[in-house]
Amino acid sequence: MAESVLITGGAGFIGSHLADELLGAGYHVRALDNLVEQVHGSAERPDYLNADVELLTGDVRDPAVVRSAIDGVDAVVHLAARVGVGQSMYEPAEYAAVNSVGTAVLLEALLERPVRKLVVASSMSVYGEGAYEPAAAVERSPEQLERGEWEPRGPGGEELRPVPTPETKRPSLASVYALTKYDQERMGLLYGAAYDVPAVALRFFNVYGPRQALSNPYTGVLAIFAARLLNDRPPVVYEDGGQRRDFVHVTDVARACRLALERDGADGRAVNVGSGRSASVLEIAHELSRGLGKEIEPDLPGAYRAGDIRNCFADVALARELLGFDAEVVLEAGLAELTEWLANQQTPDRFDQAAAELAEKGLTR
User: Whole domain around residue 25: which residue ranges?
Assistant: First the structure.
């Protein structure tokens, strides 16, 4: 009999791709999702969700719903979360409720109905600033940012060079979102250790690809830029656009989740899932504009957002060693695929509304 896997948040961007990956490998897949309007636009089953996925509509904070969802499953991949650094800073109760409390509700249910394996989605946001040489970065002060001095400095004011961030870097939680993702990660690993259940936390870097929630103005930077460009508006780039990120394709992330389910090398650990390459935000904006055939230059107002970090990209050695995972989709090919999908999408541009909310609350300057 095929093994059954529950994916919380399984009707979303990453969850639906993971469902495809697991179905292709012979698993039975059940998804629990509340189909929140900000992400899905409506409460209907998404067209892109594989017809073979058993979809349960409900909230991960509801114990009865969660108990029903885990009944009869062999493993759980916990993706359900509110996402977005900016929004988390003025909706802390909502983020704590969904991400932290929702995870606690799931774990309480698993006490009564244990599973063979638990995989929890964490985030690169738990690192805050990434790793640097020759010294660790000091958190950028508001005064420094007001002067437009974007690059972090060392403890003695020395210039720094960003390097790949390993799992050994001490977390530095620069937003409510980061704090709640660390909650999810640690609760999952603590549960696994206490109850002898193999558990893995995967720290996703900047995931991109088809099915991103273009209507959500707090989602990944690629989706936000795409929504602007599709409405013939310039992508708004904070700071000077030189901040570097690791963009990893969603199909690679889905494969990493499957490997974490099937292999035991990473049990009890937190592991980076990224491409191991970095690109600047400004490079990404230009690349998307070209791919969509839009001659629109990015808008650089010189503003910055509270909670943002400058550079963070993945050291992927541990994922290679423990899971046999290496990203396969190079950024150029992934962006080409993304722009092809985007060309057929109609989406409202809600960036201005989101930016106004952040500005009103003093979170952009």
Answer: 4-360
